[in-house]
Amino acid sequence: MSASKQKRVRQENREETIQKIAEEKAAEKRKKKLKKVRNIVIAVVVVLVIAAVIVINSNLFYTGIPAITINGTEFTAAECNYIYYTVVNNYLNEQSDYAEQLGVDVSQVLSMMGLNTNQPFDEQDCAMQAGYTWHDYFYEQMRVSLEEITALYDAAVLEGFELTQEDLDTIDLNINDMLSAGLLYGYNPKQYLAAQYGKGVTVDTVRKMMQMSMVAAKYEQQNQESYTFEDSELEAWYEENKNDYDIFTYRQVNFFADLKDIEEPTEEQTAQAMAEAKARAQKVVDGTTDEESFDKLCLENGILQYTLDNSKRVNASSSLEASYSEWMLDEARKPGDMFLAEDSQGYSAILFLEREDNNYTMRQVRHILVTAEKNEEGVVTEEAKAAALEEAEGYLDEWKNGEATEESFAALADEHTDDGGSKGTGGLYDMVVKHVYVQSFEDFAFAPGRKPGDTDIVYAEIPGDSGYAGYHIMYFIGEGPIYSHQIAENALRAEKYNAWREGIVGNAEYTFHTGKKFIG
Fold it and tell me: What is the DSSP string of 434-466?
């Protein structure tokens, strides 16, 4: 190889070496750059993860973003959750009261409804509405409730309606009572409110929603109480609607087609049995001139004494049977009229006695109920009745020997009455109407010549496991409004109120936002 050729080869090798070095440097530079970028990306991801954890573990989603807008007012998930869990608690309280009436544990009632409070609501089908989970149901009730509160609150604010200082103090007292209850269970305020109403709910949240709810409720109540009606309006309304409210007293005895010994009766057998039932009923209808003859003819035509003793009916038109309601409502009806009514099972002999138009004053009374104890067989003995009477007489003597005022009677009632419906109200029944209470109670209240302050002891008995036997110590307060006027006023007031409320609440508009997923 010549010297020049060797020189050229060395030159080429040197250039290749320089090129390789340059490429290696470039590669190393790219590697460092990629590493730097990767480190930056990792750092950003770590920061985002940390931020996400902080956000998830904070109350931001519950308090920082809107969940729903109603008529232009935004509500957070925390505010919605206050209403949501208020709806839940109200429902559970209602079921608890119902369970208490039945004498069973509330879990049994909830189980019948398919609700287990120890399981997520969104995993349980709702018995209240097809296709809904319990979460869906409570969610919808929350939305409706919040719509109503917001619409009424906005209307109240426009009219300048404000809560009194007493109202505000009541809210503060309720909040303090709530937090004090939490402290008894070892919860601080934040923990207790979160446990009761969900994450993000604070004292300020509760106060705001309580104030809105109270404004809405009191504004609504103020409107309801603002309506006034003249007696002429009330009388005209009742006259127009009397067939829906008048009370009918009559005797009804049923003569059934006798097919009890025939397993599958033919048409001929059914027709024959119906004809025989009609013939017996017709004899009563044709021969009755008064209640005495009605009873005699019924007994002669196969009616048992027990059935006859329980044949009297006192009903409003809504409870009249279709087979004779039109006849009963005819204004030509007079006491002693008879009617033969037919249904699919036989015939009835109907004796019309009286139609009442509710044109009487309601009565106001207080009472103390002393029940006679039942023995192990569930029977009230004569000895138990005597003991109850002696106890009742003792209470009445105690009252007479004391101040002998309405107030002292009320205090005695709260202390001793066995009537859960009036315990805590001084034994008060201030709208007593006819045909609702036990006869002796009603007879005292409506006795002619009754004066305020009159007292007496009356015996009453309702048979059956849920019934009672005992004595009512009665105290007469006075007379109230005319009952037919009260019926008319209630209806007219409801009509006006419903129209007013629909005009406010019926136009409410809502829009859900991202925060809705954090409700419930």
Answer: TTTS-HHHHHHHT-TT--TT-EEEEEEEE-STT
Answer whether residue 480 shows pLDDT above 60. Answer: yes
> What residues contact residue 211 under an 8 Å CB cut-off, 6+ apart?
163, 168, 171
DSSP for residue 429: E
Q: What is the C-alpha to C-alpha distance for residues 457 and 475, in angstroms, rounded to an integer?
A: 9
pLDDT range class, residue 428, cuts 50, 70, 90: very high
What is the per-residue pLDDT across 321-374, written as a single tens digit (0 to 9) for each?
999 999 999 999 999 999 999 999 999 999 999 999 999 999 999 999 999 999
Query: Hey, where are the domains in the chain?
Result: 66-226, 247-356, 361-483
CATH classification code of 247-356: 3.10.50.40
Give the number of other Cβ atoms within 10 Å of residue 520's Cβ: 20
Angle at 259 between CA 257 and CA 265, to 5 degrees: 115
The third-level CATH classification (topology) of the domain covering 361-483 is Chitinase A; domain 3 (3.10.50)
Q: Can you give 144-173 as a three-state secondary structure string?
A: HHHHHHHHHHHHHHHCCCCCCHHHHHHHHH
Are 247-356 and 361-483 equal in CATH topology? yes
* pLDDT tens digits for range 357-372: 999 999 999 999 999 9
The residues, any chain, with a CB within 8 Å of residue 237's CB and separated by 6 or more, are: 488, 491, 492
47-63 pLDDT, tens digit per residue, is: 333 333 334 445 778 88
Residue 144 CB burial class (10 angstroms; 0-12, 13-18, ≥19) = middle
Residue in the structure block whose two tokens are 């329980």: 310
> Helices (DSSP H) in 257-365: which residue ranges?
267-287, 291-300, 305-309, 325-329
Quote the CA–CA distance of 429 and 392 in Å, as a whole number. 19
- Start-to-end C-alpha separation, the chain: 92
d(CA 428, CA 421) in angstroms, rounded, equals 9
Cα distances (angstroms) measured from residue 112 to each of 99, 105, 120 = 11, 12, 17
What would the mean pLDDT of 112-121 be, rounded to a whole number?
Answer: 92
Strands of the sheet with 73-76, listed across from one edge: 73-76, 66-70, 510-512
CA–CA separation, 288 and 296 (whole Å)? 9
Torsion angle of alpha carbons 332, 335, 339, 344, nearest 10°?
110
Q: Which amino acid is at 21?
A: I
pLDDT of residue 377: 86
Contact 66, 513 (CB under 8 A): yes
Tell me the angle at which helices 203-225 and 134-158 cross, rounded to the nearest 10 degrees.
70
- Work out the number of other CB atoms within 10 angstroms of the CB of residue 16: 10
3-class DSSP assignment, residue 176: helix
Which ranges of 159-230 would DSSP assign to H, the alpha helix?
Answer: 165-184, 189-197, 203-225
Please tell me what DSSP assigns to residue 133.
B
